[in-house]
Write a structure and sequence with these properties.
With 539 residues, the chain is an all-alpha fold. The chain contains 23 helices and no strands. The chain has helices at 6-28, 34-39, 46-57, 60-71, 84-101, 106-113, 116-150, 154-203, 206-213, 231-248, 250-257, 262-276, 278-295, 307-315, 320-355, 361-386, 393-417, 423-445, 455-461, 464-484, 491-494, 504-512, 516-535. The longest helix is centred in the N-terminal third of the chain and has 50 residues, at 154-203.
Length: 539
């Protein structure tokens, strides 16, 4: 693989100068209160909202892992990139409820809808999940990218990027995050776009690519009997994970809550939905190209997770290599900044402020910055652990999320669509879900030592997609049954929080918040999703 040359380093340096300039401009604007620090004053337009949502989603683990899925015969994982329709669902279905309630965080919404216990559970659970999955996986993937591209050690690259991102996130808060993410989105799309076009050209075009890897390789729909990706389980599980991630997770929803109003927030999610379709062409197809070139003897890599960096350093000329390298580092930094800020928001608003309700705004801002710093340190401490991860990174991430998502998705969906669900039903679902997920993970990690044929072996070795689908169904049953045998929630408490309790005034306000162009844009995104499903059907 070719190393970066002087022109590449100049391009990378220009990117960092512009990035730091934006961060410095934001930091110089004094942060007045917690709304300004955590939600950028709720004054962000749709373009920045959409770009921020997209950049938060596309981390280095996404770039490395999705390309690895394309290079490693994991095409069914493509379905997670077709969740553009779920991003739009955030804007059309969930955001009006969140915006009307005036919440900062998703745990705060659960307290308003259910109880303080639900808020405490989701707050602590989210912080632990962020450190164990989002922070650690992002840093690990970033280490692979930086060490491969820049020719420096894993530790130096990972540490320097984490510390730099932590500094501007701590000082600038959410405003620094969303504006730097807008730049990072542009750089990432440009850089990866060049690689896709040049990769297809090198392999001989789309037709030659299909012929090289065979049409069957490009089929994302495996039969129900497939041991790895049975399509019914894949569709159900990916949808459950998608609703949790795109519609209920603080990491993503916080970006939509920064919008000036529901109109701007909804348009931001529509724009993000359109951007969400790009990774298929920017990362998945380059992974397939890398496999085709390897089969032709034109490229060499050892593991699928190395496919994207290997393709980039081999194929691109000087300057463009620097642009793509900057884009990959942008992906790492944007995801890290997002999770740092989300962790800080949850800790400050949902934990510290609950314990010390009389705390003044100035003190809360200080606590928010300290919390961000602590998450940065925890992320660094997790680096050596994440170095031990094996296999395709993207699949690992999706399997872990498949155990986290079902109980939270069930509680949020039922909480908004079914007014009979009460706090006891919600807490029973969340607690039972946690126990079941932990048991599954423990058994899965120790499946080789279990007796084949026993219940423990069956439970631990079941396909993770099939398990997730049944897990979600069980969570729904628990929530409904417990709620029906306990007291009905107070109608006054539910006002405006479920579909059945929206006032006529709120309905009229919501109808005025969108135009026909918003509807047309949403339909276009849905049509593209269906077209991609047809394109990758193995024919």
């Amino acid at each position: 693989m070719k190393s970066l040359q002087l022109f590449d380093w100049i391009v990378i340096a220009i990117y960092f100068i512009i990035l730091l300039g934006i961060a410095w401009w934001v930091i110089r604007k004094k942060t007045k209160n917690t709304e300004d620090y955590f939600l950028a004053g709720r004054n962000i337009g749709w373009f920045v909202v959409g770009a921020s949502i997209f950049a938060s989603n596309i981390g280095s683990e996404h770039v490395v892992g999705l390309a690895g899925a394309g290079a490693g015969d994991k095409m069914p994982m493509l379905i997670y990139e077709l969740h553009a329709w779920l991003v739009i669902m955030l804007g059309w279905v969930f955001l009006p409820f969140y915006a009307r309630s005036g919440v900062f965080t998703m745990p705060e919404f659960l307290e308003i809808r259910f109880s303080s216990g639900a808020r405490w559970f989701l707050s602590v659970f989210s912080l632990a999940a962020y450190v164990l999955t989002k922070v650690s996986v992002t840093i690990y993937a970033g280490g692979i990218v930086v060490s491969t591209l820049l020719g420096i050690s894993f530790w130096v690259g990972a540490l320097s990027t984490v510390i730099l991102t932590g500094i501007y996130t701590i000082l600038g808060g959410m405003r620094a995050v969303v504006y730097t993410e807008t730049l990072q989105t542009i750089v990432l799309i440009l850089g990866a776009g060049f690689l896709t076009f040049m990769g297809l050209d090198a392999v001989g075009g789309w037709g030659a690519l299909k012929a090289e890897v065979t049409p069957q390789y490009l089929d994302m729909w495996r039969p129900p009997s497939d041991p790895d990706f049975p399509w019914p389980s894949l569709v159900i599980s990916s949808t459950v994970v998608g609703i949790w991630y795109w519609c209920t997770d603080q990491y993503i929803v916080q970006r939509a809550l920064t919008a000036k109003n529901i109109t701007e927030g909804r348009r931001g999610t529509i724009f993000a939905g359109l951007l969400k379709l790009l990774p298929i062409f920017l990362f998945l197809i380059p992974g397939i190209v890398a496999l085709a070139l390897k089969q032709q003897g034109k490229l060499n890599w050892d593991t699928p997770d190395q496919a994207f960096p290997a393709l980039m350093t081999t194929l691109l000329p000087s300057g463009l290599r620097g642009l793509v390298a900057a884009g990959l580092m942008a992906a790492l930094m944007s995801s890290l900044a997002s999770v740092f800020n989300s962790c800080s928001t949850i800790f400050t608003v949902d934990i510290y402020k609950k314990l010390f309700p009389g705390t003044e705004e100035k003190r809360l801002l200080k606590i928010g910055r300290i919390a961000t710093g602590i998450v940065v340190v925890l992320g660094i401490l997790w680096i050596p652990i994440m170095q031990n991860i094996s296999g395709v990174l993207y699949e690992y991430l999706q399997s872990v999320q498949s155990y986290i998502a079902p109980p939270i998705t069930a509680v949020f969906l039922l909480g908004i669509f079914f007014s009979r669900i009460n706090s006891k039903g919600a807490m029973a679902t969340l607690l039972a879900g946690l126990v079941i997920a932990v048991v599954r993970l423990v058994l899965e990690l120790n499946v080789d030592s279990l007796v084949p044929g026993g219940w423990a072996y069956q439970f631990g070795s079941m396909n993770f997609l099939t398990f997730s689908a049944y897990f979600f169904l069980l969570c729904v049953v628990i929530a409904v049954c417990v709620s029906l045998v306990t007291q009905r929630p107070s109608p006054e408490k539910l006002q405006g929080l479920t579909f059945g309790t929206i006032s006529e005034e709120d309905k009229r306000a919501n109808a005025r918040s969108f135009s026909r162009w918003d509807v047309i844009a949403s339909v276009i995104v849905l049509i593209i999703v269906v077209a991609i499903m047809i394109l990758f059907n193995g024919r």
